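During the reporting period the student researcher (J.K.) took over the structure-prediction task from the postdoctoral fellow and processed the backlog of single-chain submissions. One of the processed entries is reproduced below for the supervisory committee.
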Amino acid sequence: MKLWSDSFTDGGRIPGEYAFAVIDPNHHVKLSSNRNPHLAWSDVPAGTKSFVLICHDYDVPSRPDDVNQEGREIPSSLPRVDFFHWTLVDIPATTSSVAAGSYSHAVTPRGKAGPATPQGPRQGINDYTAWFKGDHDMEGDYFGYDGPCPPWNDSILHHYVFTVSALDVAQLPLTDKFGGAEVRKALDGHVLASAAITGTYTLNPRLT
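J.K. obtained the following structure tokens:
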């Protein structure tokens, strides 16, 4: 399989319009347009019955102690964990692209509805659901895509991996409120082929 995007180049920086937040010189960050990027794929294997799309950031700090703290920077030596930004399942086998902004075009406080979408595929909750838990203004179930918003004081660039997998089943056995870990587990034994591209992003002015 081949995967590409008209929104960013593989290995390149993701533009701010596809992020949850951008740099603000006065307040560190401000909310952005949060549009999902364009993605397209080809060279699909025979027998494909559906596709799955996953976007995750593998550079998220494993501890929140220093996150967004004035006068401190998150060290590059800190162990990192995955943060899921998007899971989209049961994409019809006839589909070969996702248009920019078709699944997300703004930040929605308290989350987005799901798992059903007007386009047909189902979307899982992303990890902003757990991140905003307890926040009076933002808490909710964040279904679908929400873009990059790495800590503004992180010492490293964050990497966002977009993976599309061709499956031998038309639908994955997932409940109404599933996340990235559940999708990965459900994929086991059903992947015919996969392709991935990676974009980078930072909110640390020192790294731009």
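The committee noted the following: The CA atoms of residues 130 and 139 lie 8 Å apart.
J.K. will present the remaining backlog at the next meeting.
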